[in-house]
Specification:
The protein has three helices and seven strands. The chain has 138 residues and is an alpha+beta fold. It is rod-shaped and about 90 Å long.
Length: 138
């Protein structure tokens, strides 16, 4: 083989290897009971169980809310795996010989809200709001 052919073969092999590496990151939020509205970093992503792809690791602000239950706000850390720490991330993202999947599952239990624990004034105000919403304008 000529030196030019060897160089071209080497370049082709590097380009093929560079296109083969891939890391997919996804987390799932599950609640007990299911059906809670989920916000991640202030963005609504859906109702539990719900999944979301992400690019960066770090601490996420997750809020779960459901009628009849107390709103739950959590600062949820996501640890960075060793293969995503500099300089290893360059090789795992670009030259891994297989597809790498990183999945996280966060489970939360919602606490029922009790009207007894609320301020009686707020309970009356809620009743007025329900009444005004039920009235049909004529």
């Amino acid at each position: 083989m000529s030196p030019v052919a060897v160089r071209l073969s080497l370049v082709a092999a590097i380009l093929i290897a560079a296109g083969s590496g891939c890391v997919s990151r996804r987390f799932t939020v599950i609640s007990d009971p299911p059906g809670a509205l989920v916000e991640v970093d202030g963005q609504r992503i859906g109702v539990t169980p719900v999944s979301m792809d992400f690019t960066y690791y770090g601490t996420r602000n997750i809020t779960l809310s459901k009628p009849g239950y107390q709103t739950l706000a959590v600062e949820q850390p996501q640890r960075t795996p060793w293969y995503q720490i500099f300089p290893f991330e360059f090789f795992s993202d670009n030259f891994a010989l297989t597809h790498i999947t990183d999945r996280h599952v966060f489970n939360y239990r919602l606490v029922p809200s009790s009207p007894d624990s609320e301020n009686p004034g707020s309970l009356i105000e809620r009743g007025r709001n329900f009444r005004s919403q039920a009235q049909i304008p004529q």
